[in-house]
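One-letter codes give the sequence; the integers encode the fold. A sample entry reads:
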Amino acid sequence: MGFGTFVHHIGTLLLLVATVLLIIVNITAPVVNNISILKVDLGPTVVGTQVTFGTYGYCHRGIRNTDQCSNARIGYNPAAVMNTVAGTDFSSASENTSKGLTRAMVLHPVATVLCFIAFLLCLGTGICGSLMAAIFSLLSFVITIIAMICDFVAFAIIKRAVNDDDRARASWGPGIWLMLVSAILTLAAAVIVFITCCAGRSKKRRSAATSKEGYGEPARRRFWQRGARV
């Protein structure tokens, strides 16, 4: 296995890891109750122990030793949830902004699918496959970044309002950092795969040129070098 192929496989591994991380982001609350993008630890005066916000909804945890979770769907109202649970006040603009940005979470599964396709294309070491893998990796990176920015803005509104109130404390969950890491990995993979693709194409051209030089016109033989044919 050449050095270029080894580096290409590193890019493939990065895409696999990024895909797994994006899958985890997709199964945040309410799919898996304790994995969140934003978590709110509730004070002693509030019913329950914690609220976890995820890609497709939220969970109100610790209510009589059980968790109450919303149905999984694209787009929900985290401001209304905190107003109901902890009495946190939000302006109409803040509530509408956070609610609208949760609809952008549809980009999470899109980025995951693109990253997985890039990984599958990377399993082959052909030039065309590598080029397509680099393109899909770059697309996954762009969409992941857009989704992460929307998540940061939407939940920063919730986090700020909750922390201004003494009844609860909000902090970022692992989901937001997994998105950041997956974005970095997909970008690194796109660069690695594209470089190995260009290097492979250049090597192929040099090999083709060397082959043509090796099959040049044969030297002419003098008359005394021509033996009689049997």
Notes: Helices lie at 3-26, 78-86, 92-102, 107-122, 127-163, 174-214. The first helix runs from residue 3 to 26. The chain is about 60% helix and 10% strand.
